[in-house]
Amino acid sequence: MVAVAVVVPVSRSVHAEIAGGATSDPSGTAVSVRAAMGYVDAGDAHTCVIGTAWSVVCVGSGLDGRLGTGSTSDVGDDPWESGAALQAVPLGTGRTARAVATGDAHTCALLDDGRVKCWGGNGSGQLGLGDSSARGDGPGEMGDALPFVNLGTGRTAVAIAAGGNHTCALLDDGRVKCWGANSAGQLGISSTTVRGRKASEMGDALSSVAMPGGRLATAVAAGDEHSCAILDDGSLACWGEGVGGRLGQGSESRIGDDPSRAVASSPVVPLPRPVVAVAAGRFHTCAVLDDATLRCWGTGLDGRLGTGTTDARGDQPGEMGASLPAIDVGASRGVRAVAAGGSHTCAILDDATLRCFGFSYHGQLGSGSAASIGDQPGEMGGALAAVPVGPVVAVTTGSSHTCVLRWGGGMRCVGNGANGRLATGGSASIGDQPGEVAALGDAGTPSPATVPTTTSTTTTTTTSTTVPPTTTSTTTTTSTTVPPTTTSTTTTTSTTVPPTTTSTTTTSTTTTVPPTTTSTTTSTTTTSTTVPPTTTSTTTTSTTVPPTTTSTTTSTSTSTTTTTSTTTTTSSSTSTTVAPTTTVSRSSGGGDDRRTPSSTVTARVVPSTESPSAEVRATVTALPPFPLGQADVGGSMARELARWAATVPPGSVVRCTAVGGTTDAIPSLARARARSVCAAVAALGHRTVVEVLPVRAARIRWRRSGAVGPLPPDALRRVLVEVADGTGR
Q: What is 622-640 written as a DSSP string?
């Protein structure tokens, strides 16, 4: 499952999708954490971030054009694909982004004028363009050529949410409209008919979701096959697939798929207090209540509900309401933000630390282990350690990876690294081995625009949930934030943002961003802003990103501006980017890749001016095809592999890539074949990396490697071997 505060009529609206959450501050006040939540979003196999100049940059799987690059190539899995080398998504002449939302295979951006553009997979009409053609996978499809989503006459959006294969928008009049897949009623229109594949289904013809009691919405979230909205009285409505209890109705029945189960006539989710934030995961839902407690329900496998068991909640009578326990996040702390992913959950606490629980096979919890957390007694509360990523302002969770924005700027991602979704310049997973996260540098994407730090009465569009942790008292004060410009004036404002306290008197405005404390008392129109600086390391364990933090203190007629700069390592006038990983032991690849004990991948420095053609690689070799249904290395394959391995320089890393995706080469069999080959290579004294790629990605890898001719037609039964560089790429 990252945007900016926008002045709109509905001032409490934010958003969420499969990898994130939504917030709604009952006081109508937007705070800096909420503004930052919309800057980054993690989908199924890709990640998008709002970078410098309010552009959108995406990394990870490029299938179906979800990255908006005009191709289907992966981005972020090679060392030269980071930092300034990353291509911004063309949004159209003069247009910039204020929020980004990612689904399984599509991406949407809320633009600066309140209009919406979507690209990527479109088989269910999830792009809302009146057809089922993908966008962004070929040249000439983006920018001014990409149509806006027709939301209806005179309507704009204040929030967007991208689910598995559907999209929802919170409109400027407080109504919610959804389009795309509708197999379980996730569009909330009392039918299972798909919307968005015909032009006649969009615009004024697209019905909005009729909410219980005729209420308006203040936030919207979209999971895999369900959607939720916070209503203007603090209640929560959810609709779509009910399996596992994700709708919180004490049953597994659907809502919104039939007139007899209409959203308007269905009960709101029974919770003990008003809801200020909601996050919809793949099979579960989480909400933050107005007392800063966190409640989760739905499928409980792997501990994603944080209850110390794997039991589902909300699928049986008597499990919701006061019976639904608050999740113990430890140290008597309150929850400020929550994100619900494919099978895990992450929460930002009121001390700006991050806690994650649930499935951790790929390291998506950042715990340094592949063991699940929250499915056994004694794993939550004080036993739940903070993820060592520093003070966090935003979090988003994908199917098997997690990304955060740190106070002062900088993005860090952990979990499944396949396709480059972690933006590390490789595809290795991070976070399942001890010490990996603490050594992690900021991901190699352009830094998001500076996090707004002014308390303001605006609408914040975000991709993860936030609990309003602030207390604001104002006398004759008007504060408006429209990043990247902030204007704040008049009289007295006092704002407290845990864990810091700021007090200001007499024509003063003071804002404090955790984890620092600022106290200002002046009498001459003084503005003081404190933002923790971004720390960048020049060692081989961090990646530098553009500067994002500015701290300015003005008193009387004296002005001092400090800009935290990024550090780069230069050699002979060549700027270098350092891969953000230390030595890690793992097999690299997508899916449920198991670790190969003998494989060790080390980081190396690659000049940022270096092109793919300058990368030192051996030509990829396709071993003879495996017999149908078999995965053992033997016969002519073993002899050819031994001959090839004898030519490999000592100490090299050998990548064994299997191609999966059809009846014979199902991913599990393909993976077994790759492991067998890597085991044989390791026995000959080389380090190895296991990888499984779909056919299209394998063709791209084949071309990039410099191999002569097309990928062999029987590649689905083959394993490709080549000498990788120092990062296993």
A: EPPPPPTT-----HHHHHH
